[in-house]
């Protein structure tokens, strides 16, 4: 159908058709070479969107605009450029720039009024939805908060640089292991998705949809974050640097009877699109290290393989390791604190989640519940038995 596509572009975009046709060919070849097959709700990595590709995408449309000789052609190009602006918004928020206690999108190489220009295009051309579930108005509103700057706390020692956003669920948006310079928190998607968070499974509190702001008290190598939920429960979370470990502790004190159950939801960068279990290895302990995803096909486990991971809490450790990139991450915890482990591994997104569900407790007024875990960087794969 390329002949028909080219005919349409030359008739519709007239003198501006050349750069748009060049864009279509370039992007088609980019996706084909990457071998990605995005389905519904794809992430940026599945669409080959990076800061570099988004800047190149924008350049094609700016060139096309510069060639337009009539208002009609200019309007057609501007309407077509909505995709480039949306890609640029995603790409610029994949890595947040920290300065003087504030995080904002990294707009290097992009227009400083990028969001305003996108909002104007959406209004002009009737773009009402960002995706199937999120309105353009809500997306633009969330991005305005980010572009205006979110308060950030940075912790740093010889091993780690960690950046936390107290106003956004105390989300961790950077966890860089300084000896290697690798940020292990997944950043192959824009900020409006998830990073490293902890969500309530029952009752009031922070969730993926219910974004809450924490008060902060910063200490040397430690930040204490706290909030009060609608039902009066006091939630306190601390993130601290303990040598080569990043330690997370969460405590809830109930004001009324309520359940205590949390999901630890860390999204890590695998640095690999391979679904080969010998390249990206997943480990649990029982009591020694076990290569848990051995012989998986297409990164999809059988029910028995899933159960092996879910029931491996008693080993007190959950990890992954990239055999080619020579790095990995370990989560170490007290088995008494958690009920199950949960794995999400998506090679196309270069993402792995080492999820943990806390033990469910029924708290009465004044009662507390607590859990803790530590994150460490692996330079060598664990020794299996």
Keyword list:
385 residues, alpha+beta, four-stranded antiparallel beta sheet
Describe this structure in words.
By secondary structure, the chain is an alpha+beta fold. Helix 1 packs antiparallel against helix 2 (17-34). Helices cover 26% and strands 33% of the residues. A hairpin with a 3-residue loop joins strand 4 (153-156) and strand 5 (160-165). It contains 8 helices and 22 strands. The strands form 5 sheets. It has a 9-stranded antiparallel sheet, with no helix packed on it. A 4-stranded antiparallel sheet has the order 4-5-6-7, with no helix packed on it. It is globular.
What's the helix-strand series? HHHHHEEHHEEEEEEEEEEEEEEHEEEEEE
Number of helices, where a helix is a run of at least 4 consecutive DSSP H or I residues: 8
Q: Strand count, sense and closure of the main sheet?
A: 9 strands, antiparallel
Give the N-to-C terminal Cα separation: 56 Å
- For the residues shown, what is the average pLDDT? 95
What percentage of amino acids are in beta strands?
25-35%
Strand pairing plus helix content: what structural class?
Answer: alpha+beta
The global form is: globular
Number of strands: 22
| Unreliable parts | none
Radius of gyration from the alpha-carbon trace, in angstroms: 23 Å
Strand order of the largest sheet: 9-10-11-12-22-18-17-15-16
The percent of residues in helical segments reads 25-40%
